[in-house]
């Protein structure tokens, strides 16, 4: 499936929900892309998981902000890759720094920058300890093995449950 078809499919999924998050936050390594960027060279051309770009475009189309929360020890490589992939300017907040907290500090910064409440955020990450820590802050947090359309659907379902909303299933 190309980016445009994924985007259309993601827009259909988004259309199923009456209540949507205001901000969707993505981890990088093994969430948006299938590698640890610290093990790669800046000179390489990286690639995202197959559905990642289409999902980002669909969220933007819907007016939902996107952000990055990564504990990568090599933010310079991460940012170079986001730039090469043509997505860097899409993120309203890019928190990329190593930390002993399980991303709670990342989310405090994101909240400070965006002024969006934690309960209006949806978060995707491949590490359970991050998911558990960020969930406690009130963010709907979904464990993934690479983000894809199914994870998006699961995340939005979980988000609407947490918001106590009744959704129209078309
Ligand atoms: Mg990761």
UniProtKB/TrEMBL annotation:
This is Magnesium-dependent phosphatase 1. PANTHER family: MAGNESIUM-DEPENDENT PHOSPHATASE 1, MAGNESIUM-DEPENDENT PHOSPHATASE 1 MDP1. Transmembrane segments: none annotated. It comes from the Eukaryota. GO terms for molecular function: acid phosphatase activity. NCBIfam families: HAD-SF-IIIC (TIGR01681).
